[in-house]
Amino acid sequence: MAIGTEVRVTLEDKPGSMAKVASTLGNAKVNITGFTVTGGCGRFFVDDAPKAAAALTKAGISAWTAPVLCLDLENKPGTLARVAAACAERGINVDCGYAAATTTGRATVVLTVSDLKTATEVEKHL
Q: By the number of CB atoms within 10 A of the CB, which of 42, 51, 98, 125 ranks highest?
């Protein structure tokens, strides 16, 4: 498990908002490897968070970075349950999560948690 950085954006609730974010990142040559969009907020896991935030801000999109827990997990039933239970046992709240599965049998999972430092120790107990 590693600590990574995601880019968060404020999105208007109208057609084209997500397209503007995605095209801004694409034009800046920033690759999106995972994302979630809900309730006017987007979270994007990208290959270069500082570059992404700068490009979005320059385009007039409210953007900031935040630390997240990054997991490379087996893509099979019960894996996320073990991670969630290990976090719960340590009093760690999962505020937000999203994932991207691959055809290699692995999944990249990004979690916003209440105690990032303790959460990085969870892997040892899985």
A: 42
Please write the tens of the pLDDT for every residue from 49-100: 999 999 999 999 999 999 999 998 888 899 999 999 999 999 999 999 998 7
| CATH assignment of the domain containing 31 | 3.30.2130.10
Task: Give 21: exposed, middle or buried? Use CB within 10 Å, 0-12, 13-18, 19+.
Answer: buried
Q: What does pLDDT average to over the chain? A: 91
Q: Interior CA angle at 96 toward 63 and 46, to 5°?
A: 45
Token pair belonging to 72: 């490379």
* CATH of residue 119: 3.30.70.260
d(CA 109, CA 35): 10
Other C-beta atoms lying within 10 Å of the C-beta of residue 31? 11
Residue 103 CA to residue 84 CA, distance in Å, equals 23
Do 9 and 44 lie in one domain? The reply is yes
Q: pTM (2 decimals)?
A: 0.87
